[in-house]
Every structure is written in structure tokens, then in C-alpha cells.
Amino acid sequence: MASSQKQCVNNLQDRILLWRQAFQDCEMGINNSVSEMLWDFAAFRSIVSAIRFSNQYREKSPPINGMLFEMISNGYWYKLLMGIRRLLDRAPLHGPKGVYSLRSVVGDIQSCRDRLTRQVYVERVWGARGTIDDLREDHERKLRSVSGAPIWGNPEIRKHECSQRFFDELSSVSEDRRASNDYIDENVFLRLERRLSRMDEIAEHVNSHIAHAGSAKSREGKTLQNFNLDHARDAIKELKQVADFIGIYFACEHSGDLPVFQGDQFEGLDRALVSASDIEKLRDEWVQIGRDIASWSLTAREL
């Protein structure tokens, strides 16, 4: 293999590894982002339901402190909207300003399209070794040699079959017309972008209202109107579906379903947060905080 060709292949392999890293990174990876989004959505829905259940039995007082619920609610919505914006980020995957977003991974895959043939996809993305015909022939030979006794199947056969079938879908080529130099259909990237662009309104709102203190002019036309839990569910569903598609087809990764809590996530909800005897202590602490804040001033001489 010529030096330039070898360098090209090695560079592509590095990029494939980076696609996987974009999903696997424990701190900022796509899998982690989607998993947190699913958990937070279920947790907040549960809190809202708990309040609704409590409302059925209340008399004069609300079932939950308004200040506490506002903090929980604001925290949830801010984190959700920022999380959606992160997954929609248009920054590149590579370089000092690289990001792990759905768009960055899709864009990088698309830029490799002219090198990502069926053969490269099967061998490099899925790591399938050998040829499917040789593998099947070898398996049949082993079956004959053991005279009907059970043997382990070769996982490479399954890997070949899955990767070939996936590339049939990606390339819009039927099984009987397969060729090693098939390419991914450009419409795959157009359809992915169409799905992601449905949530651009959310990203624009975050840019002007949350991530940045947008001026009155820059905020015009970028306010989310009546965004509620049903809208949140639709957005999270769309992101999870796209993340699963990219992860499974190009990184051998799956973002997973609702995380399982190691314990009882509803423990303590049936008990009061603070006893009546401690309320006065909270009032005193509130007054002290107010006095402390009132002392936070600065004169020109103190600059």
C-alpha cells in the first residue's frame, strides 16, 4: 500500500475511534448526556405527579413549598434546554474547540463519505474479519467434523451479516446488488439534519435567554412559547432516536433506556422535609442571609 493511501486509511480509523469516543466519554459523551436527560425527565414527571396526588387531599395549604418547587422546576428546565443545545451544537468534532454533539459526529461521518465504502464500513466500523463466504464455509466444515454435536457459532458471521444489512439500508442498495464500493446515500445525512433542525428553535432560545444574556433586540422571535412536558418528551424522544441510530450504525454504541436506580428513588417522599419546630430556625437563617446580602456594596474608593 502506498504511503499516502496508508495514511488516509489510518486517519479514517482515527476518526472512527473518535466517533465511538464521542458516545463513550464518561463525562461529556452523548450516551451520558442522553441517559441523564432520560433520568431527569422521569424524575421531574414523578415530582409533578407526586404534587398532583397530594393536591387531591390538601385543604388550605399547598402540598409543597413554592420556593422549593420553583428551584426544582427551574433547575430541571434549564438543565434540559442546555442539554438539548449541547447535542445540537454545530461546532466540529475535531480540534481544540471540538465538541461531542450529534451534529458534530454526523458532520464528521458525512465528510468521510467518499472513503466510507461498504468494504471499509464492514471492516473498519464494525471490525468484521475475513469474508462471509469463508466464515460460513469454515463453520459448516466444523459442524461436519463434530457429527452433529453442539459447537459455538462464530460471532464474526453475525457481525458480517449485521454490518452488511445496515449498509444496505444506508446505501439504499438491495442485497442482490451489493458491491464493495457502495457509498452511503446522501439522503441519510439530509434526513438526520431535518430531524435535528426541528429543535433549532430550542437552541436559539437557549443562546439568547440562558447561555447568554441576550439584549432585547437579540431575543426577538426566540422565545419558546408554552413549552411544557409534552414538548419536552417529544424533543427527548427525537434526540434519543437520532443518538441510537448514529451510535448503533456508526459507533457500535447504544445510548440505552431509562437508567435503573440502585435503591428506591421514591424513598422519603412520604415524609415532611422539615419539622414544625425547625421552621423558626429557617426564618432566622433567612434574616441573617438578607443582612449579609445587604452588606455587599462597593464604593469607588474600594475598587
Number of helices: 11
Sequence stretches where pLDDT stays below 50 over 5 or more residues = 4-9
Name the shape in a single word: elongated
Task: Return the average pLDDT rounded to an integer.
Answer: 87
Question: Based on DSSP secondary structure assignment, what is the total number of beta strands?
Answer: 0
Beta strand %: under 5%
Class based on secondary structure composition and strand pairing: mainly alpha
What's the gyration radius in Å?
Answer: 27 Å
Helical amount: 55-70%
Span from first to last CA? 67 Å
What's the story with the biggest beta sheet? none
The secondary-structure element order is HHHHHHHHHHH
Kindly describe this structure.
With 303 residues, this protein is mainly alpha-helical. It has a domain at 3-116 and 184-261. The longest helix is centred in the N-terminal third of the chain and has 26 residues, at 30-55. It is built from eleven helices and no strands. Helix content is 59%, strand content 0%.
Topology:
Elements: H1 3-24, H2 30-55, H3 66-87, H4 102-111, H5 118-125, H6 132-145, H7 155-171, H8 186-197, H9 200-209, H10 229-250, H11 279-294
Quick summary of this structure?
The protein is mostly helical and 303 residues long. It has eleven helices and no strands. It has helices at 3-24, 30-55, 66-87, 102-111, 118-125, 132-145, 155-171, 186-197, 200-209, 229-250, 279-294.
